[in-house]
């Protein structure tokens, strides 16, 4: 059964390859020259995802395409000639794209997706080099090394066509597989979702804008037979960048794939040959710029996360001391200006060292985590919860009188007594110090006052709240 499934899967790969190959023949603007060559993208993806397991299917598909091509152009080659030519092409195609995709896979698997520009850079370099090697060797092998001038023209068109086929289609194929099997590395790069991703209708609007621009340029350039107008195709970079910065990478990849397919189709329908090379280069330049730019939203999102991480305690998600102080100073200025009462709570787990010593540090961490969850459930969203360090926490309660702050402390203290942990014997209590801070000179004075009260609570037997009313 497993063997039958494998044969079925590989036959499906051969079929897909041939369909894509037929698509590229369909969009050829001259014999063996198309804006893009999708089978190259498919071969590269198969080797990238399946490694050398993809070899038989890719080899068979390449050989069959030579036979099919012979039928299409009716070139009267014998079966033996076709088999020799087909295997040469297949060998080269599989060797170049197999080796390059496997090398790329080995290097990107080790890269963190946070470092997005690194896999993107490697992907672009590998694709450019592999398609150049394929085109040069292919022209030399299949056409027996023609004159320098036609060699350059044929290999350049082949190179750029293969490169765009890979650049444009690999991310789409990977994106599809990625949805099913989420992975790290380049594959996870495509999983990145910007927070600002727009609705589908807005994405569709950007796509239509790109297509209208593209059709306008190609039709006008063809009508006036003007390479200058054809060069305006590079301005498609702008709507593509818009898509990159506002949509997910997979949408960007889909947009590039559709754009290059439509461009290839239009060039083929209009029979454009003069400016076709400009369009080929444009697709590659636009794709490269889009991939590079793709790392910017990912970097921005990473930066945002790092920013939050730097200000937030990992274990309890409470604000770290320095940031808490900065926020408190800001609140104090406002509280003084508007005459609002503001209170500060300082609290500390009782005999936390003993908890750690008896139940272990992991149990101690669990206590801190659960405590933080409880505190958050008892406060308002405008209150600020901070970790001073170790088992000591702070709460800034804006627009809260000291009496109300005392009630908050008591509610938390009573909630703590009801907490349960993985260690059934573990019980926890906290001591609280409360101070009114809006009349203190800055954070330090307010903190000293709350700390004095906390020490008083500890001295007087722990598991209680101590406070001193500010003299008005
Ligand atoms: N599990 C765990 N322990 C921590 C963490 N941070 C600090 N600690 C420990 O917390 C303990 C704090 O103990 P102390 O400040 O001496 O006070 P205490 O044992 O709580 O005693 P009192 O405050 O007087 O009731 C120390 O043993 C620290 O090693 C943490 O993130 N996780």
Query: Spans with pLDDT under 50 lasting ≥5 residues?
Result: none
- Percentage of residues assigned to helices: 55-70%
Task: Give a list of the ligands.
Answer: guanosine-5'-triphosphate
Q: Hey, roughly how much beta strand do the residues contain?
A: 5-15%
Structural class: alpha/beta
Question: Order of strands side by side in the largest beta sheet?
Answer: 3-5-6-4-7-8
- How would you characterize the largest beta sheet? 6 strands, mixed
How many helices in DSSP terms? 17
- Please report the distance between the alpha carbons of the first and last residues: 86 Å
What form results from the Cα inertia axes? elongated
The total count of strands amounts to: 8
Computed Rg: 33 Å
Order of helices and strands: HEEHHHHHHHHHHHEHEHHEEHEHE
* Domains (count): 2
Query: What is the residue-mean pLDDT, rounded to a whole number?
Result: 86
Could you characterize what this model shows?
There is one protein chain. This protein is an alpha/beta fold. 69% of the residues lie in helices and 8% in strands. The chain contains 17 helices and eight strands. It has a six-stranded mixed β-sheet, sandwiched between helices. Strands 1-2 form a two-stranded antiparallel ribbon. Helix 1 (2-26) packs parallel to helix 3 (55-73), helix 5 (117-142) packs across helix 6 (148-180) and helix 6 packs antiparallel against helix 11 (249-270). The protein is elongated. The termini are far apart. The mean pLDDT is 86. Bound molecules: guanosine-5'-triphosphate (GTP). Guanosine-5'-triphosphate binds at residues 315, 348-353, 356, 361, 364-365, 368, 390-391, 458.
């Amino acid at each position: 059964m497993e063997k039958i499934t494998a044969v079925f899967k590989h036959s499906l790969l051969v079929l897909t390859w041939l369909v894509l190959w037929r698509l590229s023949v369909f969009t050829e603007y001259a014999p063996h020259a198309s804006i893009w060559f999708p089978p190259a993208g498919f071969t590269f993806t198969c080797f990238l995802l399946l490694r050398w397991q993809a070899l038989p299917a890719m080899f068979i598909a390449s050989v069959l395409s030579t036979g099919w091509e012979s039928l299409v152009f009716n070139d009267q080659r014998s079966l033996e000639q076709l088999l020799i030519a087909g295997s040469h092409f297949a060998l080269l195609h599989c060797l170049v794209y197999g080796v390059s995709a496997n090398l790329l896979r080995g290097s990107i698997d080790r890269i963190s997706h946070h470092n997005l520009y690194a896999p993107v850079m490697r992907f672009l370099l590998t694709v450019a080099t592999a398609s150049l090697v394929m085109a040069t060797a292919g022209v030399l092998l299949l056409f027996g090394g023609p004159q320098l001038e036609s060699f350059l023209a044929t290999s350049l068109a082949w190179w750029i066509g293969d490169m765009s086929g890979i650049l444009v289609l690999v991310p789409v194929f990977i994106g599809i597989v990625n949805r099913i099997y989420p992975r790290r590395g380049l594959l996870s790069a495509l999983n990145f979702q910007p927070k600002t991703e727009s609705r589908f209708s807005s994405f569709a609007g950007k796509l239509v804008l790109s297509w209208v621009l593209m059709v306008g340029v190609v039709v006008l350039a063809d009508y006036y037979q003007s390479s200058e107008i054809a060069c305006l195709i590079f301005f498609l970079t702008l709507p593509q960048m818009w898509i990159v910065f506002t949509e997910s990478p997979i949408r960007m990849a889909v947009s590039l794939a559709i754009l290059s397919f439509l461009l290839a189709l239009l060039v083929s329908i209009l029979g454009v040959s003069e400016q076709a090379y400009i369009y080929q280069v444009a697709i590659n330049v636009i794709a490269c710029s889009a991939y590079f730019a793709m790392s910017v939203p990912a970097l921005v999102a990473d930066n945002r996360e790092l920013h939050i991480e730097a200000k937030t305690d990992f274990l309890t998600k409470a604000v770290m001391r320095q940031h808490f102080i900065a926020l408190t100073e800001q609140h104090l200025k406002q509280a003084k200006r508007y005459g609002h009462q503001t209170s500060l709570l300082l609290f500390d787990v009782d005999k936390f060292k003993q908890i750690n010593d008896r139940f272990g540090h992991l149990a101690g961490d669990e206590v801190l985590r659960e405590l933080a969850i409880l505190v958050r459930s008892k406060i308002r969203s405008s209150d600020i919860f901070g970790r001073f360090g170790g088992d000591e926490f702070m709460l800034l309660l804006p627009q809260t009188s000291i009496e109300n702050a005392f009630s908050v402390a008591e509610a938390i203290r009573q909630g703590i007594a009801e907490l349960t942990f993985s260690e059934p014997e573990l019980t926890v209590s906290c001591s609280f110090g409360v101070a009114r801070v809006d009349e203190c000179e800055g954070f330090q004075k307010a903190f000293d006052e709350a700390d004095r009260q906390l020490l008083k609570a500890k001295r007087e037997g722990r598991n209680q709240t101590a406070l001193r009313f500010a003299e008005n």
